Amino acid sequence: MYNFSAKMKTNLFHIRFRLITCVFVFYLFSYCPHIHCTENVDINQLSEKYFTIFQEVNDWLKENPEPTPADAEREKMLKKLDEPLSEPQASEMPVLGWFFRERMKVFLTDLEATDAKEGVAIWKLYNHAIVIRTPELTITIDLIKGFNQILWEDDML
């Protein structure tokens, strides 16, 4: 004998689950202030909004190039980048592309000036690349040209 009540209970469960899911999604997109549609964002205005942060961090890094273990001041300065980098369109902001290329120019200058006659020199870059230089060779791991505004020009490499 077929048990219709068990099948109805299962169907009711699925209907309730779908209804609750729909209400939850509607709530997220309607009432949560941190979730917003970003289609109409003026990327240049967004870039200008964060220009001073990127400029300040870049200037500080130029004056303080050598990282030290547990460097609280360096960590504090780099954390200033958290807000602009958390923007949904961060990779499209011209100021981020400028900052990235400026920091990569500094790295390339340092790489060219470093002659690893003994031992090894290691760089950890902002895009998570690692460059290792020994007296015999230079190895790069995950070195990418970038995308959108964060892009190296071929002549930089």
The helix content is 40-55%
Strand content: 5-15%
Mean pLDDT: 77
Strand order of the largest sheet: 1-2-3
Contiguous helical run count:
5
What is the string of helix and strand elements? HHHHHEEEEE
User: End-to-end span in angstroms?
Assistant: 76 Å
Low-confidence stretches: 33-38
- Give a quick account of the main beta sheet: strands, pairing sense, barrel closure: 3 strands, antiparallel
Tell me, briefly, the overall form: globular
Q: Rg from C-alpha positions?
A: 25 Å
Number of strands: 5
Q: Based on helices, strands and strand pairing, what is the structural class?
A: mainly alpha
Which helices and strands, and how do they pair?
Elements: H1 4-31, H2 43-63, H3 72-79, H4 82-85, H5 94-113, E1 121-124, E2 130-133, E3 138-141, E4 146-147, E5 150-151
Antiparallel strand pairs: 1-2, 2-3, 4-5
Helix pairs in contact: 2-5
Would you summarize the structure shown here?
This protein is mainly α and 157 residues long.
Overall description:
The structure is a single chain. The chain has 157 residues and is mostly helical. It is built from 5 helices and 5 strands; from the N terminus they run H-H-H-H-H-E-E-E-E-E. Helix 2 (43-63) packs parallel to helix 5 (94-113). The model is unreliable at 33-38 (pLDDT under 50).
